[in-house]
Design goal:
Layout (H helix, E strand, L loop, with lengths): L13 H13 L6 H8 L5 H12 L12 H11 L7 H21 L10 E3 L1 H34 L5 H6 L1 H23 L25 E3 H11 L3 H21 L3 H14 L5 H8 L7 H9 L9 H28 L6 H14 L2 H10 L8 H15 L1 H6 L10 H5 L1 H9 L6 H11 L6
Parallel strand pairs: 1-2
Helix pairs in contact: 4-6, 4-8, 5-10, 5-14, 6-8, 6-11, 6-12, 8-16, 9-10, 10-14, 11-14, 14-17, 17-20
């Protein structure tokens, strides 16, 4: 940044600055970004500046909010980089694989079939379809961080600019939130290059016709890349991955409470996020409000996110436990359904390793929002469901999903034998119930 900003009196003119900012947010054609940057003492080439303003201006509506569909369009744009179109032959092959997967799942599970065939789509379609759920998850952070950045910018402004900054705090927060939303959309766009299906992350991302329903979604390009990297027959990988995705969607449709339960646990975690003002002031010492890269770093590195509270740790533990039970059940029934595939075991192991580590975009989401979606006891959960199936059969195993109180706990994952004993033994009548039965069973005295 140049050091001659004070030589231009307009930069200290509150009315001039307000008018320039108003023109920028309203898309006024008379707004001259080069003039404003020059007045502020910022040296940016005209070409770079015009490109930056064009990109931003196309996304913002008057007042600093995003235009309708701006984040969706950005996610789709990022997802389309390096993406391949979905050719009819691939679509038909995955449709056939899904048909086989549905038949095989019905043989090993009492969970009902889906009313609709899986969606078979591209990366862009996955990004467009799932972005609303990601935005819902990230909303508490999207509110808290822009507010903290606005406070930082106010604290760093010269004394004679405090009135101007204070009067513009609302629009600045809106712009910061919009920038955060666009960063999230970019992460979702990149995630579309990593995931294999709608349920691959473990949470319900593709909704059906109502809030309880979940649709299956197969992401063709990534499925094919996965099988190629593993050097397994393409047809086997298609069936295996389709089986996993359909099992995941069937489970959420079977346990109608499950989607709301998962989202509630996520909201409990995210709702506990509050920015530590002392941390804000520490970062403010080195924060340059005119440095675009510094702003981007604050939005994307998680530097402003606080240490987890005890309540958040408990919410995260509940979420991890439920994700482990879901993924463990899917892993178990997929293994049963695809046992006739020669490479089923190798495919299952590859999926478990992949799920345990996550990809770069998934880690980026965890940094951005502070929430890591990892089922930390996946193998233990899969083993527990296998034990339940062996001892009690598939109807009893799947019936446990009818209510959250009947499911295994995190402690049960470490002691499956104890859980089996508990669910296999009928509940014992207490003394009052037994006495009442004895009384009702007594024959009335002869008259």
């Amino acid at each position: 940044m140049a050091d001659d900003s004070e030589s231009d009196p307009r930069f200290g003119d509150e009315e001039w600055m307000k008018e320039a900012f108003r023109k920028f947010l309203s898309g006024d054609e008379t707004f001259n970004p080069e003039e404003l940057m020059k007045a502020a003492g910022i040296n940016v080439s005209p070409d770079e500046l015009r490109a930056m303003i064009t990109q931003l201006g196309s996304s913002f509506a008057p007042g600093g909010a995003l235009k309708p569909h701006a984040s969706r369009d950005h996610a789709v744009s990022v997802a389309s980089e390096g993406a391949l179109p979905l050719d009819p032959a691939t679509r038909e092959a995955l449709h056939q694989a899904a048909g086989v997967a549905s038949l095989w799942l019905t043989e090993v599970s009492d969970v009902a079939e889906l009313p609709e065939t899986p969606l078979i789509g591209t990366r862009a379609e996955w990004a467009r379809t799932t972005l609303p759920v990601w935005e819902e998850i990230a909303d508490p952070v999207a509110i808290a961080i822009p507010r903290a950045i606005s406070q930082m910018m106010a604290s760093q402004a010269p004394e004679d600019m405090q009135g101007l900054i204070s009067g513009m705090s609302g629009p600045m927060e809106q712009v910061s939130k919009s920038l955060f939303t666009m960063q999230l959309a970019g992460v979702v766009g990149k995630l579309s290059g990593e995931v294999l299906s709608g349920g691959d992350i473990g949470i319900p991302l593709v909704s059906g016709s109502n809030e309880y329903d979940v649709k299956a979604f197969l992401l063709a390009q990534n499925m094919r890349a996965f099988s190629h990297d593993l050097d397994v027959p393409q047809e086997e990988a298609d069936i295996y991955l389709a089986t996993r995705e359909i099992a995941h969607a069937r489970l959420f449709r079977h346990a109608k409470w499950l989607r709301l339960h998962i989202m509630s646990a996520i909201h409990d975690f995210a709702g506990g996020i509050s920015i530590d003002l002392s941390r804000v002031m520490e970062l403010a010492d080195d924060f340059d409000p005119m440095n675009a890269e510094a702003m981007k770093e604050l939005l994307t590195t998680g530097a402003l996110l606080p240490e987890r509270t005890e309540e958040q740790n408990r919410a995260l533990e509940r979420l991890e436990g439920m994700l482990a039970l879901i993924e463990g059940w899917v892993d178990h029934v997929t293994g049963l359904a695809t046992a006739r595939l020669p490479k089923s075991g190798a495919l299952g192991e590859a999926i478990r390793r992949r799920r345990a580590s996550g990809g770069p975009a998934e880690h980026a989401f965890a940094t951005l929002v502070g929430l890591e979606l990892r089922p930390r006891k996946l193998r233990e959960a899969s083993a527990l469901w296998a034990a339940v199936h062996q001892e009690l059969g598939s109807p009893a195993r799947d019936e446990l999903w009818r209510h959250p109180d009947t499911l295994p706990t995190l402690e049960d994952l470490d002691n499956p034998a104890g859980f089996l004993q508990r669910v296999a033994e009928p509940p014992q009548d207490d003394e009052f119930d037994q006495a009442l039965r004895d009384l009702l069973d007594e024959e009335p005295p002869a008259s």
